[in-house]
Amino acid sequence: MRTGITPGQDSDYTGYDLVMADNLPQPAVLVADRGYESDKIREDIESHNALPMIPMRKNRKVRKAADMTIHTLRNMVERCFNKLKNSRRLATRHDKTADSFLGFIDLACISLWLRHLST
Q1: Where do the domains of the chain lie?
Q2: For a 10 Å CB count at each end of the chain, is N or C smaller?
Q3: Residue 68 above 80 pLDDT?
Q4: Which sign, positive or negative, has the C-alpha torsion 57, 54, 38, 109?
Q5: pLDDT at 17 over 70
């Protein structure tokens, strides 16, 4: 898992390079929301022999199809974010430093993972 912080007013796709820069295994499919829909990201994903499952923005002139059955798997990620936001400390970001905030994100993810293993 890779987490990072970007300024709140930045668009989602500015964090793409931060997340994909690690030596993590390359995905076969990248499922993302419309915030990550840009030509640069699509080209980068396709250059790594992966399939981008990103819905097109409504103002796009050239449309590309996205398999919405695969895209519905994104719901699992959204539910995970919802469970993380049940922690008030994450939802309101009371931490003063980025390091302590990211550390608490890691602790909350470990807690969710352990809860998942026990069921």
Answers
A1: 1-72
A2: C
A3: no
A4: positive
A5: yes
